[in-house]
Amino acid sequence: MEKNMTPVPHASPASASGAPFAATPQAYDAILLAGFGGPEGQDDVIPFLRNVTRGRGIPDERLEEVATHYRHFDGVSPINAQNRALKAALETELAARRIDLPVYWGNRNWEPYLSDAIREAADSGRTRLLALATSAYSSFSSCRQYREDFARVLEETDLAGTVTIDKIRQFFDHPGFVDSFVDSVVEALTGFSDEGVSGETMRVLFTTHSIPMTDAERSGPRDRGFGPGGAYEAQHLAVGAEVMRRVAARDHRFADVAWELVYQSRSGPASQPWLEPDICDRIAQLPGEGVGAIAISPIGFVSDHMEVLWDLDTEALEAAAEVGIRAVRTATPGADPVFVRGIVDLVEERIAAVEPERRPSATTLGPWFDVCRAGCCENVRAGFKPAAAGVAP
Description:
Layout: E1 30-35, H1 45-52, H2 60-72, H3 79-96, E2 103-107, H4 114-123, E3 128-133, H5 140-156, E4 164-167, H6 175-194, E5 202-209, H7 213-217, H8 230-250, E6 258-264, H9 279-285, E7 293-297, H10 306-309, H11 311-322, E8 326-329, H12 337-352
Parallel strand pairs: 1-2, 1-3, 3-4, 5-6, 5-7, 7-8
């Protein structure tokens, strides 16, 4: 246990001390499924984008540039439908294991909002919540921002001191998450092979959302020495390597297929450094390296949403077609039973306070912490705001 630990705001008794891993079993009342949110019609698009960019002063004219992606799909992001499916699948799996925990779903940026879900739980007498954020990796936008929203909502609803919120550990390298990518990568490579493409001319591009380098550097605990890409980049690289190891174990024909990590969906001024290379820029270079077919695996995403439908299924596939490369976008976990069982395994792990050495972890970086560490995943533009499920900086 670390010395001089600061108590964790809004935590259950099992996690309030600030120890990295819960050591005392904890009875929870409900699961809080925390999503990003997305519009479900043309009239929702600009209000949704205002929510996403709140506090940045971005005018509607610039938001409309991004809105065109949503408008191409009638203003509907698939993310809410994906979360409804995930919620239903989690409820089915919990019931099958006789775990009596209802699932409340709330979003950060669109209906149903986190405040609605937390109030609904509290009104039903469910005050000890275990949260699942629909993001597997460590960074401000994929972890701490959710935790800050938990704390903000508890204060705004006057439920601080009544409702506690813990969060399952970041699950980037839980076998249930890693395995959910393997089948579709094998399927894509098998399809290439059946078409006569040789293994040395195949490439797997693992892709994730780019983030500013300043955010990447601050992702995860600062004392772990992850390098300029922080825990965010290190985690993705470790997952990519493990997926390919499992792909090769599944089918030895693909043991020597090369892979790399690329990034997508960057925004912000060109003068601001972001994680690179961009997927479309990289695709343009691949013919010169003898690559004829690529499997695009979105390991940074839990489910399909606009940045998968547009940035990958539209822009990246078009970029591949322009240079004559055969390309297939492989599946996100969504409500895959392998992924769902893995999430419920994590729920049971936290309830039972399983010892760290007994927790499944597919890479040497994990298992990740139950309670985020002090100074983890700072937002360099806004500094640290109060956050649940982590040691206060």
